[in-house]
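Entry:
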Amino acid sequence: MRSANEHPGVASRFPFLRDLVGRTGGFCGEFWGSGTGLLTQVFSLILLGDYASVYLALLRGLDPTPIATIDEMKSRMKDGNLEA
């Protein structure tokens, strides 16, 4: 997942990553954030990541809705226990 606003050091690593993953027969695609502003691009990538994770879970026959970490956070907030 990439952005037109990414740091040049991050951008320079992508050719290496594509080559490394490609040698193992894996897929290494680039998905660019859409929109004109940084926030719009970030949210477009979040949406893409969420969609992909739900779709892949369903393809594997898994229920993508239970999220233990968020459930624990909600429970702690309800009880007022936010200590680690």
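The chain has a mean pLDDT of 88.
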